[in-house]
From TrEMBL:
It catalyses: tRNA(Glu) + L-glutamate + ATP = L-glutamyl-tRNA(Glu) + AMP + diphosphate. It comes from Streptomyces longwoodensis. Keywords: Aminoacyl-tRNA synthetase, ATP-binding, Cytoplasm, Ligase, Metal-binding, Nucleotide-binding, Protein biosynthesis, Zinc. Its cofactor is Zn(2+). The keyword Ligase applies. It is found in: Cytoplasm. This is Glutamate--tRNA ligase.
Length: 472
């Protein structure tokens, strides 16, 4: 979800400024990335409603847009950096690095790379090669303070001792993120980058690399950066991609609308105004200014996310709502068989369901009483509603409903109200046994509209069945 929020802010920023949004696939990790994950990513972007001006399926002047297809470009730039003295081969083993870092910590010094291989003699290089060591490529950080203005956090300064030389190519020749992203930014002429706060510490290193690329004629300039606040999960811990609530697929399966989800995510660090939480994508784009993003961590609140999603469900046209619910009215979600589904009943009940849902998946339990032969009785609801005297109340209610006008929910309400009055009960108490008898639950869609849609014959038969159970 943090990645979705980052993509949203980039999209809104580009659209607000009529800029060019570049969608780039970072798939250099062969062990993790696959064609399936690539297709899932594209599908997620389409479902969220994001469009892009350059990238997969769209093309553009800087193709290809998958990093796995750009390896020759990275190798060429790495050679130029080595030849120009901006980078060097580092032969240090991991064990040697760990030993020296531990010693630096013990001495109270910075524990980053200590520059051991920065200025090796030819003899030292030959000795390492004779030992069969395969070097990585490190970028040579300039001995100077790096200051830049973050679009979210203002002016930031990093001193040399806190930004040591860093690896850009593995010993097997595979380029690292620290090389490929700045190279792609340079070649694709990226001007602005909004990304997570976790990447802030790498920014001074990348700025130094951009300057080297400018001197080599690879880059035209250094992008502006904005580092977005962390999204926090339970216990005020950073929301990890391994946390269940972090998965976009989970929210899709639960029936969140992309409009509702994006509305809520935009509130994690930004707001349209102090008194308006519900807004459209168009309103977001019109108002979005990255300088208004709050740098402090934002907590993901599932209940508020559901509430905002519910508001967006109610904003839908009824016809749109009925169609968006379709997946949850069919297998594997629906407990009824396809032939028992009644389209006319669904169309009749849909407007009443729309006013009650927080997520679309709730529709299944709310309307199952219409399509099942018998209601799926929730035993806790039964125990709560069927108190002593419920059988007498149900008999009276059945008698009143038998004589009611079943084309009028108001007439059905008056019948249950009259039954309650006959037993000294208010409507709320009187309708609970009727609701459980007919729908199986104490909570659900408006009762009298539900009775009307289910029909007189089935409704009375279910009251009879409840009476038989109560008196057995």
């Amino acid at each position: 979800m943090g990645l979705v929020r980052t993509a949203l802010f980039n999209w809104a920023f580009a659209r607000h400024h009529q800029g060019t949004l570049v969608f780039r696939i970072e798939d250099t990790d062969a062990a993790r990335d696959s064609e399936e994950s690539y297709q899932q990513l594209l599908e997620a972007m389409r479902w969220l409603g994001f469009d892009w001006d350059e990238g997969p399926e769209v093309g553009g002047p800087h193709a290809p847009y998958r990093q796995s297809q750009r390896m020759d470009l990275y190798a060429d730039v790495a050679r130029k950096l080595l030849d120009g003295g901006y980078a060097y081969h580092c032969y240090c083993s991991q064990e040697e690095l760990d030993t020296r870092r531990e010693a630096a910590r013990a001495a109270g010094r910075p524990s980053g790379y200590d520059g051991h291989c920065r200025d090796l003699s030819e003899a030292q290089v030959e000795e390492y090669r004779a030992q069969g060591r395969a070097p990585i490529v490190r970028f040579r950080m300039p001995d100077e303070t790096i200051t830049f203005t973050d679009l979210v956090r203002g002016e930031l300064t990093f001193t040399p001792e806190n930004v040591p030389d860093y690896g850009i190519v593995r010993a097997n020749g595979a380029p690292l993120y620290t090389l490929v992203n700045p190279v792609d930014d340079a070649l694709m002429e990226i001007t602005h980058v909004l990304r997570g706060e976790d990447l802030l510490s790498s920014t001074p290193r990348q700025i130094a690399l951009y300057k080297a690329l400018i001197e080599l004629g690879v880059a035209k300039g250094v992008p502006e950066f904005g580092h977005l606040p962390y999204v926090m999960g339970e216990g005020n811990k950073k929301l990890s991609k391994r946390d269940p609530q972090a998965s976009l697929n989970l929210y899709r399966e639960q029936g969140f609308l992309p409009e509702g989800l994006l509305n809520y995510l935009s509130l994690l660090g930004w707001s349209l105004s102090a008194d308006q939480d519900i807004f459209t994508r168009e309103e977001l784009v019109a108002a979005f200014d990255v300088k208004d993003v709050n740098p402090n961590p934002a907590r993901f609140d599932l209940k508020k996310c559901e509430a905002i999603n519910g508001d967006h469900i109610r904003l839908l046209d009824v016809k749109d709502f009925t169609e968006r619910c379709r997946p949850w009215l069919q297998a594997p979600f629906a407990p009824w068989s396809p032939e028992d589904f009644d389209e006319a009943k669904w169309q009749a009940i849909a407007p009443h369901a729309q006013t009650r849902l927080k997520v679309l998946s709730e529709i299944t339990d709310n309307v199952d009483f219409l399509f099942l032969a018998e209601p799926a009785v929730d035993e806790a609801s039964w125990a709560k509603a069927m108190k002593e005297g419920s059988d007498a109340l149900l008999r009276t209610a059945r008698e009143k409903l038998e004589a009611a006008d079943w084309t009028s929910p108001e007439s059905l309400k008056e019948a249950v109200l009259a039954a309650g009055e006959a037993h000294g009960l208010k409507l709320g108490k009187a309708q609970a046994p009727v609701r459980v008898a007919v729908t199986g639950r104490t909570v659900g869609l408006p009762l009298f509209e539900s009775l009307e849609v289910l029909g007189k014959e089935k409704s009375l038969a279910r009251i009879d069945a409840a009476l038989a159970r109560l008196t057995a």
